[in-house]
Structure formats: structure tokens, C-alpha cells
Amino acid sequence: ILLLCISGMKAETARYSVPEEAEKGSFVANIAKDLGLNAEELSARRARLVPDGEKQNLQLNQHTGDLVVREQMDREELCGQTEPCLVRFEVLLESPLQSFRAEVRLTDINDHAPVFLNKEIVLKVPESAMPDTRFLLESAQDPDVGNNSLQHYSISSNEYFHVYTRRRNDGRRYAELILNKALDREQQAEVAFSITAVDGGTPPRSGTALIRVVVLDINDNIPVFTRSLYKVPVMENSSQDTVVVVVSASDLDSGTNGEIAYSIVQNSEENFETFKINTETGQIRLKKTLDYEETKTYEIDVQATDGGGLSAHCKVEVQVEDVNDNAPEVIITSLTSTLSEAAPPNTVVALFNVRDRDSGDNGRTTCELPGEQPFSISLLASGAYALVTSESLDREQVAEYNVTVRARDEGSPALSSSKTLFVRLLDVNDNAPTFTQDIYTMVISENEPAGTSLGRLRATDADEGENARVRYAIEAPPPGTPAAASFMSVDVDSGTVRTLRPLDFEKVRAFELVVCASDSGSPALSTQAVLCIHVQDKNDNAPVVLHPPPDSSSAGELVPRWAPSGYLVAKVVAVDADAGQNAWLSYELAKATEPGLFNVGLHSGEVRTARAVTERDAPRQRLVVLVRDRGQPPRSATVTLALALVQDFSDAFLQLGHDPASRQQPQTAEEDLLTTYLIASLGCVSSLFLLSALALATAKLCKARLRTHLSPTSPSCYTDGDFVSDGLDVAGMGTLSPAYRYEVCLTTGSGRSEFQFLRPVL
């Protein structure tokens, strides 16, 4: 883009012309055609004119590409006598940025007539003047230039004089009056005629003045200047009333005819306003300060006149020397006051020209940027510069710049001027939101109602506007993972975290969510953080007894009467679904048939004998064990144990078959009848068993006697290895196994059998 811009800047200047005083809206040229663009492209690229000066005299129609006159222009007002009179401007195009220089020449029209400053010119001529003597006349003024300026002079018909038009070095024309024949004051003391100045316009314009020639008496000698041409340099910073030069003339006559008076022939209004002469000494002084940039050379016609009316002329050429009295001017032609922070290096920010009205070294300029800023100056053409970015910009570090462009000339002493450009950076969404914490930890008690606020997430964005507006959301969990996002919600604007439903510590103790903070830029940027939710336990669960099972009406345990103190009777096992202190369980004996006989371990739940069991203790005991947690408020559960005190295990069934509570209930006739049937059945079964055992013993006895005759007698016993045993020693465990076994031991030669009846599996 920069290369294209530079190439456009250095393109050849387009030149047009238009007559001065052209009406508003007058067509000058078609810019689009000259640039090779159509009207649509010209409008799309937002073409505009940038004048070289402060006044906008021309206008560009973006729809047609026509360059038209915006305001009437007076060539004499804009340029004076300078020719050609040029109105310079630049055509700026965007996307990409290009600049084309152009100039419109104002062609002069004959809108001014020549004018004599004095409508009556008095000329004193001695009667002794010889024919062909020349007399310098005051020049007429015509601000037009070229053919429209003053071209020649003419005088009305008379027998004594004719006029001759001459041309100065600067192109201006002046008149000399030439004597045709000798004058005779005695015949005619005064000659009057008119002079006419005519320009070359179409139609021509003219101006007239009256010339009165006064014939003087004889004066033999005319004044003579020491030099016919005086060339003097004058510094432009010379103050008012400074002596420019002293002209000197002498006259050989005596008396009043030898007295010389000096005067400046008013050949231009500018000379009249700038210089004055001492009529006696010939000193020429400044009436005002000079300006090299306006006029570089003055030509002054000085006339020396003696007392007899004779005169002579000399020319004074004043060369104005330049002084470094003009500081450079910085003229901004195009400025992009707002710039995207994403603009790459070498992006054009502004186009400007530097102009110094001085000449030579005084007019040579350089540009610089004081201070350290991410900008630089690129030279496009002579006096044309571009302010470009020199590095990447970051609005978050510096949002706006005051760029000072300083122009300095090479004069002595050097002069400088500066102009400050305000550049504001437009935000680009180049910063993602940032959470204040990488991990947020929030705590909530279980069973809190839906909508409870846990806290607030906070993320900041260094951008501005919509690019800094942060929106919060919970990231969707990966497929196959628990939907923890269904427990919580995050307010999209404030980041407040709230529950969607009550939480149960026993089901969910802690979980993590991935939260996302995204801005509203385009494209949107986002960042993530981890939200850890910890659920605090409440004592909302009572202890649950696992053993003995709570669904049984009573749990029976056998306790031998020979049990010592500390004998383990049973163990209560309970759990609590809560955690921490809410799940710490303690056991205590809430109710007992014999309060002092048993105790319960506070933390173990073991039911042991507090003392040795005695014969006086009731055979059936009922214990109520209370299980309590340490929550606030505490929760508890109870379990009932039924214990049977047995002498040996043969009457275990009988003991366990009666519940101590049954004594409190009335015995009905049906229960008594059932008991009778059971006893009778047991007696029958026992009789059959005894008969079978007796028969078996008799058979064995017979075999043993028979074997005695055949071999020596050797005892034999069927030990535990002959039977599959899954029982346990009751005495060793201190409690009863849920399964029982029958143990039969037979010895040869023995006449009786021993049986141990244990409690069958119920």
C-alpha cells in the first residue's frame, strides 16, 4: 500500500486551465477520465480534493468525476502580477491510499483598464529644448497580464510632441514624450494634450490623463547624474526608514538654475508605497519593510530637476536579498484521526506538505518527530511527506497519541515550526478475557434450595466497548461424563454462580465444572477456568443398624451361664450415610432386663457381660441398644437383642423358644394345644432314634464279639476327619455359630453311646 501510495505521489502533475472569474459550477476537467477510473470507482474510493492553500476554490463531483469551480477566482487577487497563476491541489483516493497532484492555471481576462495615478501630468520643458529631446512620463497601471496588460500609449494630435512606448526588463511598458520642434515661450507658454494608455484585450480597454507642458525660459545646462544606473542590494529585514541609496546629480548653471531637486517618477504604485526620496539630498529611504517572497527586484526612476526646470533621469535597481525570516509551514493535506490498532507497520496516517517561503538554504527544510513514538516520516516528493506507523500498535498500552511534526529550515539561525496531530486508536478484539483466578473453589451446604448463590466469577478484558463485554457460561461436559453442569448455573452477565436444585452430600460430595468467559467481539475470544464445588454435609441421615437385621422382630443370642465378666455376647454394627462428625457413632444401653448384667462398647458396639452370669439371673434377657451420631441435632436408632442364658446347649432350643416378652402376653388355648403337639412329636422322634441307636449298638456288639475270636481287640474311634465338619468350638468363640453339628463317637467294646444335640439351623 505504501509503495502504491508513493508511486501515486510521484506521478506527473496533471495540468488544467480555466478563465478567471468563471461562474460557480463551471466545468474544468474530468478527473476520473484522466486517472483512468470510472465514476463508480471514484465514488467507492471516496475521492476528494486537498487544496494547496487554505481556501477551497475547486470542487470534485464524486458521482461524475467532474472538476468544477466552487467559487469565482480573481487572478489578480490570487497571484498579482505573477504569471502563470496556478491553483494547486491534490486528489486523494482511498482503498488503497493514492495521491495525484494537479494544478489549474487561471487564464487572464481583460477585466481591468489601464489607470493613471495622476489624472493631470505637469511637465516643465525649457524653450531651449532641442527637437528629439525625450521626456519620461508617469506610467499607467494595469493589473492584467499578457496581452491584456498595457500595450502602448498614444497622445492627442499636436504639433510639438509625439509619444514612444518602451518596455522595461520586467515586461512593463512606459511612455517617453519626444519633442518634434523647438518651443517658443513667447508664442505659446503652455501646451496641453491628452495621453491614452491602451491594453491588448478584446475588446481593448484604455485610460487617459491630461498632460500640461509648461514652457520655461532658457536654462543652458541640465542636471547630470553621476551614474545612469544604480544597483543596490537591500536585506529584506531592513527596518522602515532605512537608507537604500543616495543618488547625486550636478548642474553647471548658477543660481536657481543650478539648484537641483530630486523626485521619484511614479512608474508604479508599488514603488510609491515602498520608497521615498529626499528632494534636496537624493537619499532614497524605505517607507515600509521589504518582503523578498513578494517582490525580489524594484526599478525606480529618479528625476533631478534644476531651478530652471531642466531635468535628467537615472534608474535605481534595488535587489532584495533573502533573509531567513519565514519559518517552515506544515500543511496537513490528509489526516486519519482514528486508526485501527491492528494496522500493520508503514500504514499511512497523514499526508502533509512543508513550505518555506524563503529561498536557497533558508528555504530548504527537514522534518522530524520529537520523542519516541511508533511513527516515522516518509519523504514522498519535494516538500511532500507521509506520516506512517513504524511498528505495531497496542491500544491497551497507549490509546491515543499526540504526534508532533516539526519542520526546520537550514537558514542561519534556523527557524522551525511544528504541528500536533491527534491520532486515536480504534480497538480490535485482540485480548481474550482473563479470569482473576485459574481455579475457583466454592462451598455449599447440602439441601440448600435451588437458586442459592454460591459466589461470583470475575473476568476482565483489556479491550473496550463490545470487545470488553464479558459473558459467562458453563462448558458442556464431554460425552460419557457425569452431567455436573445440571447442578449449577452461571449468570451470563454478572458471573454469579447459583444452584439449579438441592444437592445431596451422600450422592455428590464434590465436582468440578469448566466455566468459560467470552467477549462480544468478532470473532469472539474466550478463556476457561475451573470451578470446584464442595458440598458440606448436614446431619440429615440417622444411623442404620446392619446387624442384627432391623427387619427381624428379635435377634436371639445364647449366653452360657458359666460366662465370665467381659464375655462377648453380640456385636451391634451400624453405619451413618453422613460424613465427619455427623457419622461418628456411639453405642449405649438404653434398656435391659438386668441393667447391671450387660454393657455396650461406646465406639465398638460390642455387647459384653458386665459381671459373671449367676443362677439368679433370668434365663431370658432383653436388651435395647441405642445408636447415636454426633451431628447437630443428633440422630439415633435402636435395636433390640433377645438373649438366652443356657446351662448347656441341650436346652438351647427350649430357652430360645420362649421370649421373655411372652410372659406378659396371655396364653391362649390354641398355643397350649400346639405346644402339646410339639412335645408329643419330639417324644416320638426321640423314641425312634433311641430304638435305632439301640439296634445299631446291638449289631456292633455282636460283630465285636465275633471279631474277638478272629483277632485281638483294638479300639477304634471315628474322629473329626471322618466327617465333614463346618462347626466351631462354642467355648473358644464366646458366641454360638449359626450352624450346628451332631457329634457321634463310638468305641468298640462299649455298651453305651453318647450324643450331643445342638441347635439345628433354623
Automatic annotation (TrEMBL):
Localization of this protein: Cell membrane
One protein family per Pfam: Cadherin
GO MF annotation terms: calcium ion binding
Keywords: Calcium, Cell adhesion, Cell membrane, Glycoprotein, Membrane, Repeat, Signal, Transmembrane, Transmembrane helix
A Gene Ontology term for the protein's cellular component: plasma membrane
Chief site of localization: membrane
TM segment ranges: 674-697
GO BP annotations listed: homophilic cell adhesion via plasma membrane adhesion molecules
Recorded topology in the membrane: Single-pass type I membrane protein
Function: Potential calcium-dependent cell-adhesion protein. May be involved in the establishment and maintenance of specific neuronal connections in the brain.
Protein name: PCDBE protein
Species this chain originates from: Sclerurus mexicanus
